[in-house]
Queue: 3 jobs
Job 1
Amino acid sequence: MASSVALPRANATSFSNRFFGLIPGILLLLAVGYAGKFIEQSMAHYGKAHHLVLPNIEYVLWAILLGLAISNTIGVPQIFRAGVATYEFWLKAGIVLLGARFLLGDVLRLGGLSLVLVFIELALALTFMTYLGRGFKLSPKLVTLLAVGSSVCGVSAIIATQGAIDADEEDASYAIAAILALGAISLFLFPVVGHALHMSDHAYGLWAGLAVDNTAEATAAGALYSDAAGKVAVVAKTCRNALIGFIVLGYAIYWAQRGQAAEVKDKGAFLWQKFPKFVLGFLLISLLATIGVFTKPQLTALGNLSRWAFLLTFAGVGLRTNLRELGKQGARPFVVGAVGEVAIALITLGLVFGADKWFHL
Amino acid sequence: MPEPQRRFSLDSWAVMLALAAALLVRIGILKTVPW
């Protein structure tokens, strides 16, 4: 009897402890993100007041740079870490709310094209990464993790695959470090290449969504180019995310047949468990917006809520990236990841230019 | 002690939060969201 009373109380205490433990980190995300927004606005006002032509550097970049500066100098103190780790939660909430800024027909058209390109990208990227990893004599499961991480959706895909194929913690941490380091590099390189090639917002957004690994980095890489490119990048990246379950299931069956992973008994339940639910939320909000459930000012309010959620995300991308820690990981996984990323970036760039020629993006 | 099984994933919580925010906007409790 005593335990039946004590247990809920203990659970309630642990829940409230965990909940309140998130608050300092979330406030830090808000402070860093808002500081980025403040710097952007201050620079614009200063330029206007003094008749100067200053570069328009978006809050996205400022938030990431401020976060990077903190995490790589003084570091993120323990008290903030749990809250900072919620940045992926805000990213997903932001993507769902972003659905309000799309008509369902646009989502289906853009999503349909993205899906076709994602299938081609996945087939080429998974094959290329597998042979590349074997060529560099990496362990077979590390090759699988790197292939999934670079072709599907970064860290989430690696974590999902690690559990499904019983891969070592060490292999997973190598793959995650390589993918995070490369994601941080692509975040800054992609907009430069996009501008150099004079890509349209649509073409660039599609490219960023198809090629940049993590959803947070893909969203940021798109938003760094333009607001419109950011929206397209989210749709293309969401299409890649939607396929994560199928890829992980394929690898789980492959390794189970070799007796090196547990057998998947209920494939339907496995797919549902791995399916990113925010994709459904995004489609639902887009459907509600399309059938006129929201008025125009309400759609603006939802769009702004999505921007606030992304602001927390971008601050988190900088704050969780510790360049020294990433540098400590082995060189070979990084080299394989880097060569693979360049190849995937070129393949997807070719696909996007092809699609642009055929469909006039 | 093993970690208790979560009823909802983080993903699902994010969707629920976003839908709750959309509901607040729809029924007029959140009238304007500045940016």
Job 2
Amino acid sequence: MNPTGIAVALLQAVFVIACAPLLVGWTRLVRARLEGRVGAPIRQPWRDLRKWFVKERMVSEHTGWVFALAPLVLTGSAVLVAALVPSLSTSSALDQVGDLFAVVYLLLLGTVALSLAGLDAGTAFGGMGASREMTITAIAEPTVLVAIFALSVSAGSSNLGVIVADTLSRPSAAASPTNLLALAALAVVTVAETGRIPVDNPSTHLELTMIHEAMTLEFSGPDLAMIELAAHVRLVVFLTLLANLFVPWGIATTAQPLHLLVAAGAVLVKLTVLATIVATVEVFLAKVRLFRVPELLAASFVLAFLAVTASFFLA
Amino acid sequence: MKHTTFVQLLDLAVGAVLVTSFAALWLRRLATVTRVIAIQGFALAGVAAVIGVYEHETELIAVSVMVAVLRGLVLPGLINRTMRDGDERREVESLINIPASLLAAAVLTLVAYTATRSVVALDDSAQVRAMPLGVAVGLIGILLVVSRRKAVLQIIGVLMLDNGIALVMFLGTSGVPLAIELGVASDVLLAMFILQVLTSRIRTKFGGTDLDQLRELRD
Amino acid sequence: MDNVVLALPLAPLLAAVLIAVAGWNRVTAWAAPFASLAVVAGGVALATRVVDKGPVIALDGQLRVDAVSALMIILIGGVAAVTSTYGVAFVGTELRTDATTPERARLYGVLVAVTIAAMTVVVCADNLGLMWVAIETTTVATVLLVGHRRDRSSLEASWKYLVLGSVGIATALLGTVLVYFVARRGGIDASSALDWSALAEHSSALDPDATRVAVGLIIVGYGTKAGLAPLHSWLPDAYSEAPAPVAGLISGALSTMSMYALLRFKVIADLALGPDYVRNLLLVAALGSLVVAASLMITQRDYRRLLAYSSVEHMGLIALAAAVGSPLAMSAALLHMIGNGLAKSVTFSVIGEIRFLTGATLIRDVRGLLRRDPFIGTIFTLGLIALVGLPPFSILASEVAIVRAGIDDGLGWAIAIALAVMMVIFTSVAIHAFNMLLGEASDDHDVGSGAGAHVTPMTGRIALSGGLLVAAVVGITIRPIEQLLSAAAEILAR
């Protein structure tokens, strides 16, 4: 655990947290422009967060410690994952624990915390949102595991840094069936886990159509700010995984400042492209009916499964 | 063609064949399923073409053209005509729901790999290593036949089974002698014709091809 | 001699062309029976040549007629002769009673002739791929024949037949392809890697584990087509809904073709893997078929399905004999094929007459058959006697031989089960037959108008009696075919 490693890890965490609301702002701006509106500037999510942080924190008297703890758990796990995922460099101090299992279960920890908070509030919408979220997560989590496992078979290790380095060293493997299938599976899971169309509409105000939003209805003030920030960070984390596992060129393999700068620029470009794609998909696709969501997720699980089969049995 | 390029193209084509068979299980609209089977036919032709180019066998390239025409155009066109003639509902009806069918198909892929392990062990080339995927496509075709209630889907299942076996043929043997290939192809075509004829007769007699209505013969 | 081999499929094909061009009329209707008799004659000629001087090769090694093939050709010709001659009478009656149109009769004639031609190719082919193509052709041709009557139940039967048959035959194709693959990896030349003779000769070069997979698929695939349990569910529907002469043709010869293909592969498998693998698979299939057949014959209500399950039973017996595998068992199996073929062709045909007479298909709707129409009643009785294994017909001899061979070979337990099952079948057939044959002649249960006035035409009478006569002769003495039978059994035994 050398100091440079720690510095890189902290740097990654700060970088991701700083960029996440901006990226979400970019997504909203693209969506607005495509829909013919002017849209809010990119830094609007930061202004929303700042507004919420100073507002009064109102808590229902029917909630308990789960409700109070959930925002902290959610944000904490999101920040930790932000430090783990190789966004700037593959040589961070947390690299030894930067295992795919750790990442997946940290994300799951956050989801479970939020769902429990939704239940703890005791409202109908909270329970509805929590049950829907759990249904989606139950199928999406194995898909993430299996998809990254497929990648780890060819790289020889489930450490994210090693996988990224391996793809860097073998460019032709980027177009192999394993990678393509895993990419498709992870893309669907990203959409499902971050609550975007076609699984969930993030800008809906109709409670019966909500999944993620329904669980956060009871939060206010700093709690709400933390939850929203965590949601933004999770989106960026997923997009970073997509970007750096499959198109890793630009990432730094050392901790030299110049390389880190280049890496920051590269990952920002990739994230912007991905965010634009997400926004465009949101504009042009319709939300899938809830009972069809398991079919969509089952298809992505099968794609991930095929990726594993391909990694074992094909070149 | 370099060996690495050959392996990549081959894997892509074989992967496309397998993915289309999963897509046929997943989709809900009959018209889209037919289109997916047509894509599978073209992917199959692609496999034959890639192997033919790599091994410099013009016979195989000719076979690949025939496969593209037959399994990519003619047979899906027949199936389309069968569907269009009827005015029944155009949705898939199944005995097991879609996520369960997808999982069953994943299990069948594993079964195909374990069952043909001793066959694959005989040779180390990229083609032979991909052979179990052909068997998997065949098994998924049988799954379609067994679990779907619409007559058109059973036809598609039989066609998929034949596609899977053709894939095994191309990968394992670089095509059996041309005469056998022609015989097989013509028999498949004949069988499809007859299936279409039967479907139209069933439609006339029963008013729809929901196979649940065909339940008069039992012990 | 190779001209004779080529003439075998050509004669029925010519008949098909004739009927296609000129339609079905009183002259062209006889094309198929004559072609079948030509096939029998060709088979006899080939048999005499093969027994003396060994196999006949034609068409550059694609076709190879040995003792087994010659025997099968005679069987095909015989069954085809009986059923197509009866078919003349059958279609004539249908046309007369407006049960069918001239168009459909023409299609019927063409398809029957094509089926006969394809069957001859099956048994003459040395190339296993060509054999597969021929079997697939018979499947495709008979599907439309099964649906000849175009009513709801026959459509359902032909649909099930085609779909399940396609699945079965595709499995057999996969097995064939894998055999080719294994043969090529074993070093056999590409041009002969699917030739049965080459595979039998170089069997030591075949990798055992991979061959096991291939042969397993073959047994499942061709077993489905032959009607072995557990994949026999298409058989009762197809046999009962097909028009009577077609049912006779399919049950007498077509299922036997798939059994023949199985036996050819068994020879290669036994050489490459040792006899135990195929023996165990066949034992399971055989005993399963026997038990299924017996349990579904006891409570059977439709006399056509009763006969269909009898086919399942006999295929099971042949599979049992094949599982034993000794020369005695194989000659018993071949003799059983002949006996079953002849008896089935006659019995299924006479059922057509019963249906014309009473219009009924259920056992309880047919009463006093012996008194109502002595000819039909007698033929039906004799046919059933032949099928359950009573003298003077040959199935008794083949069943006794199977029992002996099984006990000699240490499979006494399987034989015991088979004997128990056969006793159950005997009893249930007897009871159903008594219900149909004995009692007062009454037309109370006749279905539909116009029934009851039917008299079997002379052509039909000749066909049915002739078939039974040949079956009886074979039962009394196998002297004419003894040499051929033992030569064929030698080839197939392990």
Job 3
Amino acid sequence: MITIITIYGLLAVGLVASLAKSKEKTLKACMIAKKAFLKTAPSLLVMLGIVGLTLGILTPETISKLVGAEAGIMATLIAAAVGAITLIPSLVAFPLAGSLLRSGATVMTISAFITSLVMVGMVTAPMEVKELGKRFTLLRNGLGLFAALLIAFIMGVVL
Amino acid sequence: MKVGFKQYIGVFVIGAVYIILSIVRVDWAVQSSKVVWDYLKEMVLILPPVFMLMGLIEAWIPKNKIQKWLGGDSGLKGIAISFVLGTLPTGPLYVAFPMASTLVRKGASHTNIVVFLGAWAALKIPQLMVEIKFLGIAFTLLRFVLTLATLIVMGLIIEGVLHRFPDKEWLKKGDEQVEHSMMDTREREV
């Protein structure tokens, strides 16, 4: 809700300012927006489809079964993999992580799940490649996964 | 502008997967379709204003401004600006990629883009509130600090690598795009 208010608020301010200054340029902005939208539409649809598949198959129940309450390094690696593959909204992910933590998963496993969830996006990769290039996407997500494991390790030791 | 069949191959492949799934595993197909429907509703609401905002940025903010704020010489200030832009409550990550693309083409450095995308995905303010509630303040704070530090390091590494080995394929695509939009303006002026 906050998101929607923020975006539409920004747009309203921008549009009014733009229209006040130049109708011509506002029209040009509309054209650019339309073009960018048409260009992005296919990769957005693909992403939508993949999000559906990952979340439809990897439901919160399945994830808790996969990550489980074990303490081993295996659980941490699985958690990182699940986090890297899926794109779970934070309103679902954090309660899930909290309940896993309470049911016995280690801090390391939980932070591996959360950090790789937010640092690595397999589902959004096709779109990222299109917008920012293959090399950038590979570097960002590869280093992101490494960083996620590193952060998880530090957090496991500290907390 | 032609929207080729080629661009939609991925969409057809995904469609085929759903059809196969609805034969093999109906429960998975139903669950997945429900998720798609939920996300579609969200995207329809969020994406049009986002693209419109990008259009306004493209039309109004000159390249040298973006370069000054977020370019290679923007230093700590650039990182700070990218960080703040990323943490604002402005929606899911798929919104950020088109924005990041606009910023890069207008001269933002890769370091700043990595920080921007990372903050967007990992350090969003509304998301942090939920995290504190379910995982506690110690967990959230530690993750916040560690993530911010690694993001900056990652950004510097990626900047260095892409500087030495530029993504030629992607750069070429960008040039074509610029030519197209220039042609359009010319057409419109005529």
